[in-house]
């Protein structure tokens, strides 16, 4: 964990720099970026200002694509190169800065519904060897009556129709998922699954647990998200880059044990930092308010923090925070916080820790919208329990007693003025907060001016050299 905060710079000095090579030939830009569909979207909508959002790996083509789109549509095109949060989410905030009326989102996407602007997703048609993928499927599922759901990364969705034509005559029980950008119209029918922009209808009598999952795409966050969510199904995958199929051996149980350990850490926390990891996914404001209410009822202090893309150095500045909860899209919620000073959990894990009415059922949720009122997995907060009647709880980590009951809502508690205290004899008021209390307890509180206390002296020559080895420190003999 120490290397996340500081290093001697040796790795940076030895790193080999390679020139970036554009993954798409210029002669294939029209097909790869679906210029015809994008042009029709802009013309049919009558948009005059359009934002083009590219991930880092496709930025080399941004100027050429924007020029062709302006020529074909007559609209102004603005390239969004550095997104505020994850590149899979539509950056509506950056688009509104230029007054864009619509967004063309290029590259991989989480397909989370947006709040304001109309969006067209263009995933980029990455090549897929359908014949080799079909052979890998037959090797993994030799029984032709197997119940299998075929999922894919969005960049290979264009080839799923051809793969379906190859497999369905031999495998009558194979189901192909469909991509849905935004919320699907109408309520879900019995047996229908709608998650992560995928939609499919389960036909087996035993439900989804009777199916296996076959994923077409490279290993990454999307596959991990699928495996944790549908953890009752065995997974296999085909990697189009290597052309190899395999049975996924990721220990889902071990990953879930790690996540449940973080739930226990959240139960022990007294101060929680709510990290805003998206400003474009619909419902993020509602879930922020829901988490604040939940933490208040659980007797925990909370701060709402907007730090952009979280990293160990940023979050280490908030030492008074015991744990963080990340409000982001389903694909970016599962943040590996092993290198962080404090752990980072998802909204669902925080609910498991603070809502006594929610129990672990084996179904893991990564989409925070499932927790909101009216959603499929919403659980109401139970009534408050007096402290004298609360059942005691013992931490599995520290072994200490802790409170596990909910308090009354804030409106029925003591008035807000009780958070104010007299600071000195002039009756100046100061607000009591966990951050201020934590700062008072620290031995070093930052640089202090100490006006009139520091004697005046002449300037003296300082140390020379670089921080790793000043001249007056000498050299170590090998």
Secondary-structure blueprint:
Layout: H1 10-14, H2 29-32, H3 35-45, E1 49-53, H4 62-73, E2 76-80, H5 92-97, E3 102-106, E4 119-122, H6 130-140, E5 148-152, H7 160-167, E6 174-176, E7 178-179, E8 192-195, E9 198-201, E10 212-216, H8 221-229, E11 235-239, E12 244-247, H9 252-268, E13 271-276, H10 284-297, E14 301-305, H11 312-315, E15 323-327, E16 344-345, H12 347-354, E17 393-394, E18 401-402, E19 420-422, E20 429-431, H13 434-441, E21 465-466, E22 469-470
Parallel strand pairs: 1-2, 1-3, 3-4, 5-6, 5-10, 10-11, 13-14, 13-15, 15-16
Antiparallel strand pairs: 7-9, 8-9, 11-12, 17-18, 19-20, 21-22
Helix pairs in contact: 3-4, 6-7, 9-12, 10-12
Task: Write structural notes for this entry.
The chain is an alpha/beta fold. The protein has helices at 10-14, 29-32, 35-45, 62-73, 92-97, 130-140, 160-167, 221-229, 252-268, 284-297, 312-315, 347-354, 434-441; strands at residues 49-53, 76-80, 102-106, 119-122, 148-152, 174-176, 178-179, 192-195, 198-201, 212-216, 235-239, 244-247, 271-276, 301-305, 323-327, 344-345, 393-394, 401-402, 420-422, 429-431, 465-466, 469-470. It has a five-stranded mixed sheet with strand order 6-5-10-11-12, covered by helices on one side. Helix 9 crosses helix 12. The two termini are 28 Å apart. The model is unreliable at 19-25 and 412-417 (pLDDT under 50).
């Amino acid at each position: 964990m120490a290397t996340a905060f500081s290093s001697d710079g040796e790795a940076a000095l030895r790193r080999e720099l390679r020139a970036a090579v554009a993954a798409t030939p210029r002669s294939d830009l029209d097909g790869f970026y679906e210029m015809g569909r994008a042009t029709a979207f802009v013309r049919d909508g009558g948009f005059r200002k359009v934002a083009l959002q590219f991930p880092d790996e496709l930025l080399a083509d941004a100027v050429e694509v924007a020029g062709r789109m302006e020529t074909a549509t007559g609209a102004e095109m603005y390239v969004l190169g550095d997104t505020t949060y994850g590149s899979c989410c539509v950056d509506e905030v950056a688009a509104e800065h230029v007054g864009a009326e619509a967004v063309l989102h290029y590259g991989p996407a989480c397909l989370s519904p947006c709040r304001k602007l109309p969006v067209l997703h263009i995933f980029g048609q990455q090549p897929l060897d359908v014949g080799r993928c079909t052979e890998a499927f037959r090797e993994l599922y030799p029984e032709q009556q197997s119940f299998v759901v075929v999922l894919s990364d969005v960049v290979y969705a264009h080839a799923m129709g051809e793969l379906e034509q190859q497999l369905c005559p031999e495998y009558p029980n194979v189901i192909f998922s469909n991509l849905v950008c935004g919320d699907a119209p109408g309520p879900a029918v019995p047996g229908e699954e709608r998650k992560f922009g995928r939609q499919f209808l389960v036909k087996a009598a035993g439900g989804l647990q009777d199916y296996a999952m076959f994923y077409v795409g490279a290993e990454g966050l999307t596959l991990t998200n699928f495996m944790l969510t549908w953890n009752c199904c065995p997974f296999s995958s085909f990697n189009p880059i290597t052309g190899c199929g395999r049975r996924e051996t990721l220990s889902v149980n071990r990953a879930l044990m790690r996540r449940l350990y973080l739930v226990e850490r959240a139960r022990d926390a007294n101060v929680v930092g709510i990290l805003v990891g998206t400003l474009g996914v619909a419902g993020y404001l509602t879930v922020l308010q829901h988490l604040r209410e939940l933490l208040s009822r659980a007797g925990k202090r909370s701060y709402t923090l907007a730090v952009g893309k979280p990293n160990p150095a940023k979050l280490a500045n908030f030492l008074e925070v015991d744990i963080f909860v990340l409000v982001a899209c389903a694909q970016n919620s599962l943040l590996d916080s092993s290198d962080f000073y404090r752990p980072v959990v998802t909204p669902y894990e925080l609910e498991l820790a603070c809502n006594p009415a929610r129990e672990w059922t084996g179904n893991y949720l990564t989409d925070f919208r499932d927790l909101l009122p009216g959603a499929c997995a919403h659980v109401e907060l139970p009534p408050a329990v007096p402290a004298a009647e609360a059942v005691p709880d013992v931490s599995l980590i520290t072994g200490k007693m802790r409170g596990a009951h909910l308090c009354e809502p804030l409106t029925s508690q003591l008035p807000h003025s009780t958070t104010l205290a007299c600071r000195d004899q002039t009756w100046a008021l100061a607000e009591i907060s966990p951050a201020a209390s934590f700062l008072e307890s620290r031995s070093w509180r930052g640089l202090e001016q100490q006006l009139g206390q520091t004697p005046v002296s002449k300037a003296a020559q300082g140390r020379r050299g670089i921080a790793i080895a000043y001249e007056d420190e000498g050299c170590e003999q090998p």
